[in-house]
Every structure is written in C-alpha cells, then in structure tokens.
Amino acid sequence: MATMAIKIAVTTWPRPRSLSAPNADIGATGCNTIIPYKIRSHSVSVRRSRGAVAVTVVASVAKHLSFNSTPSSIESFQAPSFCGNPIGQASAKFRPAKPFIVSMRYLSSAMLHFAQLCESVAGTSKKNEKVSLVADFLRTTPVDDSALAALYLCGRVFPRREERVLSIGFSILLRAVAKIADKNPAELAPILRHHGDLGAGAEEILRHHPARPSLSLPQIAEVYASLAQQRGPAAKQTLLEHTLLGLAALEAKYFIKIATGELRIGLKESLVEEAIAKAFDQPLPAVQRSNMLLGDITDVLRLAVTNELSSVSLQLFRPISVMLATPGETPADLVAAFPNGVLVEDKFDGIRAQAHKGDSQVEIYSRTLDRVTEFPELLDPIRNITGNFILDGEIIGWRDGRAIPFTELQQRLGRKQIDLFTSAQVPVSFVAFDLLLLDGRTLLDAPLTERRLLLERLLTPVGQPALQFTRAELCHAVEEIENCFLLAIRRGNEGLLAKAPESPYVPGRRGQFWMKLKRPLATLDVVVTIAEYGHGKRRGLLSDYTFAVRDNGRLVNIGKAYSGLTDGEIHELTQYFLEHTTEDRGFQRDVEPTIVLEVAFNNIQRSDRHESGFALLFPRIVRLRPDKPVAEIDTLSRVREIFNSQHTR
Fold this sequence. Notes:
The structure is a single chain. The chain is of the alpha+beta class. The chain folds into four domains: 4-108, no CATH class; 156-260, DNA ligase i, domain 1, CATH 1.10.3260.10; 324-518, D-amino Acid Aminotransferase, Chain A, domain 1; 522-645, CATH 2.40.50.140. The strands form six sheets. Strands 10, 11, 12, 13, 14, 15 and 16 form a seven-stranded mixed beta sheet that branches. The longest helix has 14 residues, at 127-140. It starts with a strand and ends with a helix. Mean pLDDT is 82; it is low at 1-108.
C-alpha cells in the first residue's frame, strides 16, 4: 500500500508538563532536527524551529483517498529523544493547536526517503544529531532497506570485503546526465564547477526533469550490481540513463554521489556504527568489532536487529581491516608516547597483505580486502607451514638479501597474466610482522609480545627468503631509536614501526598503540603550472596543483599535490590564479608559472603521465617559496639523481 504524507503546521506547542519526562525541554529554540514519532498506527515527523513546530504525519492509506479533516490529537510518542532530550509517553490530552493541512505529497520511494535523510544529515554539524537522524531512519525502515542505507551512508557501493567495482568514470556519468537534460556536456561545466561534485551538480541540472520517485533501495542495489557486471562504457551509459530517467533530482544527486564515492555529508563510518548501536540498543564496541571482523556493515545491521552480534568471530578466508600506525615526527615523539619502552622494527616499502592458510588452501588479501593474485610463488612456502593461521605482513621486492625499491615491485602489480620474466627479474618476499589467528585461536586481544613469540615459533623453521618475519628490538632512549632508524634506511627500508609491547591488535583503527617514523626521500622546489578546483569543503577553490621542474629552458610537469597548505593560503592562491590564468578548461586552469612550492615525497617512479617521464609518489607541499625565483627551482637532472639514488640506498 502506498503512503501519503500530510504536513500539518502547528502554531503552538504545549508546555513540557504535558510530557511525563521531567527534563523534556522541547520549547528550546534553534533545533531543526526531524525525528519520527508515532500517531496511533501512523508515523509522524516533528521539526522544531524558532517560534513554531511543523508536524508531518505519514498515514498508510490508499493514494486515491482524500482528507476532508485533519487529525486532532497525538496519542503516543515512541522515540528516545528530541533535540537531545529524553521524551516519555505524551499525555492523552496532548493535542496541537489549530492544525491545518499545508501540503500533501506521496512518499512511495525508499530512495527518496534515503536522499532526504542525507540532506538532513548534511544540514547539521552536530555529531549527536547526525547519529540520531540515522538511528531513527534505520530503526523505522524495513531491514532490507536499512541494511543498504547503512552501507551507502558509509560512502560505499559494495561492502568492504567484496571485490566488485563499478568502473564508471566522470565522463560516463556526465554524458548520461547531459543526455537526459538534453544538453551538451560542455555546457554543464560551470554548474559542476560551482557545486564541486557531479552529484550536487546533477540535482541542479535535472531539477526540472519530470520523474516520479519509484525505486527502492534494493532496486538501486540491483542497478549498482548491473553496472559492475556491464562491460564497456556504452552499455554502462545506457543503464545509467535508464536509471536516472526514473529518479527525481534529489534521488539522482545521491545515486551519483554514492556511485562516485563522494557522499560528503559529514558522516563517517564510525558514526554509522554508533547509529546502529543506538537504533537497536546494542553495545557500540560489539558493533565496531563485528564490523571490523565481517567487513560488511549490512551483515552487522542484520545481526544487530536479531541481537546476534556476539556470534561474530575471526574466520579464515574472511579478511579484516589492518591495524594502522599513527605518524611520528622524531624519535623523541616515540619515547614520549611509550615511556616504558617500545618494540621497533623496520618499516617496509611494499604492499600490506594478509595471508590466510587453512589445510592446503592459501589466499593472500590486500589492505582493501581484495585477493592478491600477482605473486603465486608465495603460496607454496606459506602452504608448507604446519597449522592453520592468519599472518599480517608486507609483500616486498627482495633481491640479494635486501629490499628493492617499490618502483620495481610496481612492475608486477595489476597483471592478469603472470609474466615469468618479470617475476624472475623482480623476486618477492612475504615479511610477516603479526599473527592474528593460530589453529582456531583468535589472537586479536593477546598482547603483542605473546603474538610475536608465537609468530617466531611458527616461522623460524622456514629459512627461505620468500617467507620471513621481522625482528623487533626493545628501545627506551632517543639515541637507540635513532640508531635503529638509520640502520633501517641503510637496509633500503622506509623507516621504523614502533609498537607498544602489550598492545592488542585493533583492526581498522589508527591509535597510539602503533606509531611509524619515516622521513621524506627528498624535497624539490617546483613551480605550479596547472590549478584545479577541489571537492567538498574546497569546492570553488583552486586547491589541487600540478607542478613542474626545469629542463633545458623549459618546464616539465612531474607531479600533483593538494595537501600541506592552510585554508588561508589556498584562498589567496585561488584569487591569484584566477587573475593569472592562461587557459580556462572548466575544472582546470593553466596558470602563469610564478608560484614556487617546496614539495616532499616518498619515492620517484617512471611515468608516461607527465612530460618529464617521472612522477613523485605521495607528494605533499612543505611550504610556499616566495623567496625563490622560477629560474632557481630544481631541474630534471636533479630528479634523475634522486631516482637513481633509490636503487643504491
């Protein structure tokens, strides 16, 4: 049965004495939260603003029925809070004064309901209000819809543990939106630049497009699944056009935002976890632990509904998020963080991976929980170890008893066919540094010292370069850590990992149990040649900068950076670049090469992307260099020197 919404304006609100809760001060001004309640068998949303209250009643009635009169009493409130204040049962005498119908619309689309939720969440900066809005939606929505809503609110199309991807780029989406709007894609550039992302731009572009909301969230999920299966841009664009034709402008906005991974409503996955806990009266730690072990928040919500979160455990061949380390700047930072001593080990420049072994089956997973298939030579050494286990570690290039640069290892990534020549030229090693499960025993809560002891016992008999484990040293003083750091660099590694000896393994979290210490490979003085508009809070600002070095009297691009400057510096540079643009290409502007930056980076690799033939890995802006003229910035020959030094460290 379709539902009809009747919006009722209420000019006054009864005094708090009509509510049983003594501290329900709902007369406070400034709250604009929409929270669902119950009117007999119907639902109602209440919005409190300055001086008045608007009530929306959603009644389960057939569409063809009309209302000749309005409800006159609200009999029961069934929600835990209103603007952060507890509410009990309302008095049977409670009735809004002078109710009248001011608007009527159909709410037959779960996707529209979800899009309206996203708008409400984006409209408040208060964390507790965001959590309450999401919790109320999840609680009052059918499980199939609420499970998908939880997933999409995390900004994902598919659960973390799945390997499916949409493989749709900006251009395909732009062409689909332009086709429906009967516009040339080039005409839409100013609108998209104003909004900063395609989803928000599509809402404006399709605002007058006639569409009747009709899709449920499971139907939206089917569209995403079909997009992932389609091969070729033409088929994907056709499906997108067909789908967008059936969506209202607001629905299209969030359909595209989810598809592009640019939800940007101020909601992190941790807040969605809080909302699930709140909606279904579950302990937050239980929700968090289940989510990190399952890698699928839709399953977490379903288990929360049935009160079965305690049944979740670490399992073989179900990868989990890796534990993360917090950056430290100096050895003194590590001593301050771990005053009773810290275990330090080399930090490798490779691919973070989990190795799962059960009987004769072996699988390796990446930090994104995808299967790693490029290194088949690692499977037998892992398979030959006695026992069933999960290892956390790093896949690195390994030759002549030492690590080789990541740029060489990259030659083996992304290959569907195994290249035996490349495999021989770039041999690899799985270096384990933690043990998460051993013969059915979960070790996540065991202290690091115990996990390391078990790891060493497990891998010491191996004795081959394809499978190794890290050596850790207990340090107490700055000098000890500095010495370990220098030795790690000489061995060709990135730096150090420092770990609290008694720390548990906390998947997917960055805390103070683990810290990392590394230093940039080098810095370069470069000049900005292209400025690009940012996204989210930086929309409308030229915040992403492509930069160049000198090469025999010309400038050649070598990288792009978007972090390191303050908001004030970005605003100033935006105005400057607008006034010194040589060519406007919509999202990008070629600019006069006058702004010099100092950039740091972790590595240099060969690349066809830039005219220089090189690209900096993980570049970040250290500072502006107004004191340095363009004639004195670094050269391509200096870049080659640094590149070659990577292979001799």
